[in-house]
Amino acid sequence: MEQFYGTGRRKAAVARVFLKPGEGKIVVNGKEFQMYFRGILRAVHALQAFRETGTMGRFDAVITVTGGGPSGQADAIKLGIARALLKVNADYRPALKSRGLLTRDAREVESKKYGLKKARRAPQFSKR
């Protein structure tokens, strides 16, 4: 049975997506997709690549995601699925690219500076 692989990254999250022809079962870190992203509305956007290419329910996905929080993990999964679908069929490229699903969001957290509370937040000034 053929298997297609895609890697997705966002913030500190890294997702490894394995697609194989099936009935649309999606497993994330050993849990069902809805159970893993319980109550997070943004997670539905992770499956956008399937909707754009009309392949919803045609592939089983086994996803391993590490690092980051729920939002970063959902976006990492979205990129991983899009990259894996490109390997399935290169004709999906225009549909995925027009929606921005093949672009890696490079925004990262700025590192904290010494003498400050966060990257740019200075301690509160006290005159007396």
TrEMBL record:
Q: InterPro entries attached here?
A: Ribosomal_Su5_D2-typ_SF, Ribosomal_uS9, Ribosomal_uS9_bac/plastid, Ribosomal_uS9_CS, Ribsml_uS5_D2-typ_fold_subgr
Q: Where is composition skewed (Basic residues) in this entry? A: 114-128
Q: Name the residues that span the membrane.
A: none
Task: Cite a single GO MF annotation.
Answer: RNA binding
Q: Where is this region: Disordered?
A: 109-128
UniProt entry keywords in alphabetical sequence: Ribonucleoprotein, Ribosomal protein
The record's Pfam families line, in alphabetical order, gives:
Ribosomal_S9
Q: Which GO terms describe its cellular component?
A: cytosolic small ribosomal subunit
Swiss-Prot/TrEMBL GO biological process terms? translation
- Give the similarity note: Belongs to the universal ribosomal protein uS9 family.
Q: What name appears for this protein in its UniProt entry? A: Small ribosomal subunit protein uS9
Source species of the chain: Deinococcus maricopensis (strain DSM 21211 / LMG 22137 / NRRL B-23946 / LB-34)
Its taxonomic path starts at: Bacteria, Thermotogati, Deinococcota, Deinococci, Deinococcales
Annotated gene: rpsI
